[in-house]
């Protein structure tokens, strides 16, 4: 006959099976798109990406869709800058996307995407950079046409926190026109939501079975 210890272990196994971690999508937006992910017209304010630092920036302002989209193109994003012309100073601008991981386990979060920049840039996640946050082309330090003639892939798999997170692109323009495009952003993480009703039923069945077995064992020991 199964011992009480083994029965308890079996019941805990039922509990584990009753509460699987379900993956959920992290709400993210490419540069220059509306709430439905549709690219905006030139001169439009980006409702999701803001500029938090750079020449003349004292408070966050919306990134602006470039009027001339003469860089590499994606059907799912457009290029943005400080203004529609792309001419707004040579010092670095910091473009920020904020997203919320409430209801997700931040240790399981992964974001993939691609980006292009005129001219150089670096990706920061919650202020961290480099190999500490992921893999791929997290930095484009050399002034080269390849930075805006091609998209560069990256993966973020570390450095996430519970609640609000910040994804920053620090961009430095080396000429008269600058731009940033972030596309193919996809994120997922395990949900921390409460178990479904069916899971609670399974847990209850296991608990009732355990209690019944303990009672039977106690009666048998007294006989």
Summarize the entry for a quick read:
The protein has 223 residues and is of the alpha+beta class. It has helices at 4-18, 146-149, 197-222, and strands at residues 23-25, 45-53, 61-65, 80-81, 93-100, 110-118, 120-125, 134-136, 139-140, 152-156, 164-172, 179-190.
Explain the overall architecture:
By secondary structure, the chain is an alpha+beta fold. 20% of the residues lie in helices and 33% in strands. The chain has three helices and twelve strands, in the order H-E-E-E-E-E-E-E-E-E-H-E-E-E-H. The strands form two sheets. A seven-stranded antiparallel β-sheet has the order 4-3-2-5-11-7-9, with no helix packed on it. Strand 2 and strand 3 form a beta hairpin. The longest helix is centred in the last third of the chain and has 26 residues. It is globular and about 50 Å long. The two termini are 17 Å apart.
